[in-house]
């Protein structure tokens, strides 16, 4: 395999594992939000704000990984 094939494989793994991690994280967070809002309905507004803030941060981490993978795919510093 050539260096280009390894870079393509690495970019796919970065995006794939990042997507899996973000989906699992948002799923767990959403479940905990539903549990917490069922236990204390008066805190739904506060919890909802925090949930959306954390969802944005989780997605930001995934998008940073996508950006790094795209940098390796299109502006490959390892291709000689």
Question: How would you portray this structure in words?
Answer:
- This protein has 80 residues and is mainly alpha-helical.
- It has one domain (3-74): F1FO ATP Synthase (Up-down Bundle).
- The protein contains two helices and no strands.
- The chain has helices spanning 3-39, 44-74.
- Helix 1 packs antiparallel against helix 2.
- The longest helix is centred in the first third of the chain and has 37 residues, at 3-39.
- The mean pLDDT is 89.
Number of strands: 0
Give the full name of the CATH homologous superfamily. F1F0 ATP synthase subunit C
Q: Output mean pLDDT.
A: 89
From the alpha carbons, calculate the radius of gyration and give it in angstroms. 18 Å
Number of helices: 2
Distance between the termini: 15 Å
How would you summarize the topology of this molecule?
Layout: H1 3-39, H2 44-74
Helix pairs in contact: 1-2
């Amino acid at each position: 395999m050539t260096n280009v094939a390894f870079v393509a494989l690495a970019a796919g793994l970065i995006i794939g594992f990042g997507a899996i991690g973000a989906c699992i994280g948002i799923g767990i967070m959403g479940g905990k939000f539903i549990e917490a809002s069922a236990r204390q309905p008066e805190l739904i507004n506060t919890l909802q704000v925090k949930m959306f803030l954390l969802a944005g941060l989780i997605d930001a981490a995934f998008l940073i990984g996508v950006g790094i993978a795209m940098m390796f795919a299109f502006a490959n510093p390892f291709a000689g």
